[in-house]
Design brief:
This protein is mainly β. It contains one helix and seven strands; from the N terminus they run βββββββα. About 20% of the residues are buried. The mean pLDDT is about 90.
């Protein structure tokens, strides 16, 4: 949920592993700004940093890290630009985690 502001961090469990995730909005990036995601392990070691949030894209697909290898983060939305006020729980664009098996079942091989 990003309703608390332009920079939000929370603890969550993905694929049975606990992580900290930070979502931040950079209003100076591009013509109307962009959202970015950084994922940390429980010791606050960076796993992925500054991944741009794009609608209907596997955000972590092009990265490999043994600390995050059970699935993918994906932003599901209507295909439009992920704007400042339209990203988060119950909004036009939402962040999801799917296991690799769920991705294959939903989208085929990747």
């Amino acid at each position: 949920d990003t309703s608390g502001g332009k920079n939000y961090t929370q603890e969550l469990t993905l694929g049975g592993v606990a992580y900290n995730i930070n979502t931040r909005f950079n209003s100076r990036d591009g013509d109307s700004g962009n959202w970015y995601v950084t994922l940390y392990d429980q010791s606050d070691n960076v796993i992925f940093s500054g991944i741009k949030v794009i609608s209907n894209q596997l955000l972590t697909r092009r990265f490999y890290n043994t600390a995050f290898n059970t699935g993918q983060l994906i932003c599901i939305g209507d295909g439009s630009k992920v704007t400042e006020n339209e990203f988060g729980v119950g909004k036009r664009h939402q962040l999801y985690f799917y296991t690799d098996q769920e991705i294959k079942e939903r989208y085929g091989e990747f």
